[in-house]
């Protein structure tokens, strides 16, 4: 039965990301429910389900998924604005995925196995990953606060924070999957992009500040990942 779920997800990905031009998105956001592209987009999702299944026998699930897809998109178009557009994008995709899972479960009597949520090793891995996001960023910020340079180069808002989170999660994943060589590649890649800019800035204090933050970030991720690997549960 898993093949049915994969086909439903394939139809969704094709319909929402590959077969929806930017012009459709712009028209829908401008005209909302008055846009013909909105209804064409919903119809496309229904047709795609028929295509990926190569059968008309799935008409019930195709119509239900299509109708619910239209309702979710209508809610997004109605309530989103420029400030909440990014949030609504993720809410929209989560709801579409939930609809696919529910329809798959209902029409194919599939069992969604959530036993992994009771697995201590999985929960420990999840806690470690969560710690490496905002909590680790706060720890690092507190530690290096006294070394903040008087003037820092202009950058995107919170860019450094998100770069740190991504790099820690990547290191965590690499170590936990025993791909230690990828950690060296990541460090080398960041050195090329980051410290090249710092060299041009001719600011020793800023360079040292970034270096301390980077080493702390890498160190925390490495220590946490290796510790979790060696925990016996």
Automatic annotation (TrEMBL):
<feature type="transmembrane region" description="Helical">
    <location>
        <begin position="169"/>
        <end position="189"/>
    </location>
</feature>
<keyword id="KW-1133">Transmembrane helix</keyword>
<feature type="transmembrane region" description="Helical">
    <location>
        <begin position="87"/>
        <end position="110"/>
    </location>
</feature>
<keyword id="KW-0812">Transmembrane</keyword>
<dbReference type="InterPro" id="IPR021737">
    <property type="entry name" value="Phage_phiKZ_Orf197"/>
</dbReference>
<keyword id="KW-0472">Membrane</keyword>
<feature type="transmembrane region" description="Helical">
    <location>
        <begin position="39"/>
        <end position="66"/>
    </location>
</feature>
<dbReference type="Pfam" id="PF11750">
    <property type="entry name" value="DUF3307"/>
</dbReference>
<protein>
    <submittedName>
        <fullName>DUF3307 domain-containing protein</fullName>
    </submittedName>
</protein>
<feature type="transmembrane region" description="Helical">
    <location>
        <begin position="122"/>
        <end position="148"/>
    </location>
</feature>
<feature type="transmembrane region" description="Helical">
    <location>
        <begin position="209"/>
        <end position="231"/>
    </location>
</feature>
């Amino acid at each position: 039965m898993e093949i049915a779920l994969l086909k439903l997800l394939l139809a969704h990905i094709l319909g929402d990301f590959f077969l929806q031009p930017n012009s459709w998105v712009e028209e829908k956001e401008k005209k909302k429910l008055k846009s013909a592209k909105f209804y064409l987009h919903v119809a496309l999702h229904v047709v795609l389900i028929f295509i990926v299944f190569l059968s008309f026998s799935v008409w019930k699930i195709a119509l239900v998924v299509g109708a619910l897809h239209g309702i979710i998109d209508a809610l997004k178009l109605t309530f989103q604005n420029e400030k909440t557009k990014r949030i609504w994008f993720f809410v929209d995709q989560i709801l579409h995925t939930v609809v696919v899972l529910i329809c798959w479960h209902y029409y194919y009597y599939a069992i969604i196995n959530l036993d992994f949520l009771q697995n201590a090793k999985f929960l420990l891995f999840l806690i470690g990953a969560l710690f490496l996001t905002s909590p680790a960023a706060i720890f690092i910020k507190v530690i290096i606060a006294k070394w903040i340079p008087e003037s820092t180069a202009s950058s995107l808002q919170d860019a450094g924070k998100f770069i740190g989170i991504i790099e820690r999660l990547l290191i965590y994943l690499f170590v936990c999957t025993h791909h230690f060589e990828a950690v060296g590649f990541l460090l080398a890649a960041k050195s090329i992009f980051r410290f090249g800019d710092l060299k041009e800035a001719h600011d020793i204090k800023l360079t040292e500040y970034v270096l301390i933050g980077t080493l702390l970030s890498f160190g925390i991720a490495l220590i946490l990942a290796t510790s979790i690997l060696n925990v016996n549960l």
